[in-house]
Amino acid sequence: MLLYNMMTVVDRFLHYVSFDTQSCETSIATPSTDKQMLLAKALKEETETMGLTDISLDEHAYLMATLPANTDEKVPTIGFIAHLDTTPDMSGANVKPRIVEKYNGNKIVLNASESIVMSPMVFPELLHHIGEDIIVTDGKTLLGADDKAGIAEIMTAVQYLMNHPEIKHGKVRIAFNPDEEIGRGASKFDVEKFACDWAYTMDGGEVGELEYENFNAAAAKIIIKGLNVHPGYAKNKMVNASSIAVQFAGLLPSHERPEHTEGYEGFFHLTGMSGSVEEATLSYIVRDHDRNRFELRLNRLRDITDYLNKIYSPETVQLEIKQQYRNMREIVEPQKHIIELAEKAIRETGITPIIRPIRGGTDGARLSFMGLPCPNIFAGGMNFHGRYEWIPIQSMEKAVRVIVKIIEMNK
User: Fold this and answer.
1) Catalytic hit among 46, 85, 147, 213
2) Cα separation of 115 and 117, whole Å?
3) Which of the 8 DSSP states describes residue 232?
4) Helix crossing, 337-348 with 393-409: angle to 10°?
5) Which residue among the candidates 138, 179, 180, 211 is catalytic per the annotation?
6) Strand, coil or helix: what is 100?
7) Is 174 helix (H, G, I), strand (E, B) or coil?
8) End-to-end distance of the chain based on CA atoms, in angstroms?
9) Edge-to-edge, what's the strand order for the sheet holding 391-392?
């Protein structure tokens, strides 16, 4: 049996990444993959062994537990949340993490046999962590710091508080959920059962990050119907769906793609395409922090659809838009004390807060609109979703201290 009260955040992290928890976009089940439940069950056992209370794991792999208050003072109940799954973008099976001790600023060879190298020329953030101990992959899988680092940090912080009863605190709730990476992490989250005044997701990147603004987000699918005839006799007859797909993509501004945007700039991101003469599809995600600009982006897709259908024929181009999440700022900002508490705790641990918008989304965005204000705090990982993912051990340790400090300062 693992001695959970003796485990460091690194021990926990290395244990958790041994679980393959990749979610699946095409599944309609929750969790979208059964393997997420395996980690949830292991975490449930860990919370039981640690002595947490009110532990529950439902059939959808939502795990909740309580660190009981050890003071009679009336303080708000706060929560900490992280997600179980890793992205479908790259395999999370058979992860082989390696610790690069006292990183010296040079290139890191992840896999010599396949010439996979991580260079600070490409990833200059590495140079901010010279002298630290960095956990990397072997270049064949992602690492899973998104968001098993968050899970490890929450569990380690809770264990620390249990081992140090002299630190007085109110009731704290923790939760781990499936399917964040496919946008469904909050879908079956029972906010009433969680019963917190507010919460924080531990799902950010670089040390110091504190985020309460995120993209408004939608997914768009464009389906184009063509007409195929022999190319030698195609004049005035053939309608090439693939050519129309290229035309559709060309009508969107090329400078408004992810590779050309930053900060508050939104984008159209082509995530997939397939096609033949008979039928073609384009898949986009659409993002913008500003609600009005976001709606203008969606209207642009509608206008292009109408334009092409006038050129060809009605119903040649079909557009499906699925709303995904909204900017949590409108919920969190009126309750600024939530941000101020986290910002002060970060400063108290000797870290300079980095308050900036998330160029993405978290479960906290949807949870905020479900009645649980939920900003996002750094977990320390970098280069999420690919073979070059890495995390400094010292960043995880700092995240643990921030969690403890928030709980301690919540009066």
Assistant:
1) 85
2) 6
3) G
4) 130
5) 180
6) strand
7) strand
8) 37
9) 98-100, 134-136, 391-392
Extended strands (E) in 267-401: 267-275, 279-288, 317-325, 354-355, 376-378, 391-392
Return the structure tokens found at 330: 């409108």
Give Cα 287 to chain centroid, integer Å.
15
Mean pLDDT per 10-residue section of the chain, whose length is 411 residues: 72 97 95 98 97 98 97 95 96 96 97 96 96 97 97 97 96 97 93 98 94 93 96 94 97 96 95 96 96 97 98 96 91 94 97 90 90 96 94 97 97 85
Rounded to whole angstroms, the Cα distance separating 298 from 110 reads 41
Is 72 annotated in the active site? no
Amino acid at 224: I
Active site residue 303: no
**Residue at token pair 């280069």:** 383
Half-sphere exposure of 76 (CA within 13 A, CB side): 16
Q: Residue 65, CB half-sphere, CA atoms under 13 Å: how many?
A: 25
